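Standup notes
- DV: blocked on the single-chain target, sequence here:
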Amino acid sequence: MILHDLLVSLWRSAEATVFFVTHSIEEAVYLGDRVYVLSASPGTLVREVQVAPPDRPAKEMQRESGFQETVYFIRDLIAQLEQG
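- DV (later): unblocked, structure below
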């Protein structure tokens, strides 16, 4: 979580666009303002999910119910893709 907070700090100071690829849903929801869900091979864009950009330390933000609801929404979406 310390590295997440450091990355957010660097992102804000550089005022740059960052494209971050991860397999961690929690990391994507915390670090992004949009999460792109891709299908399995071939990887195609399935869904774009708007998320609240980080405005508090990761340790605080990741405990909130809204954050967890977003994580579970994306997790359920991926589970549906795997089944169908």
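- Follow-up: Strands lie at 34-38, 45-50.
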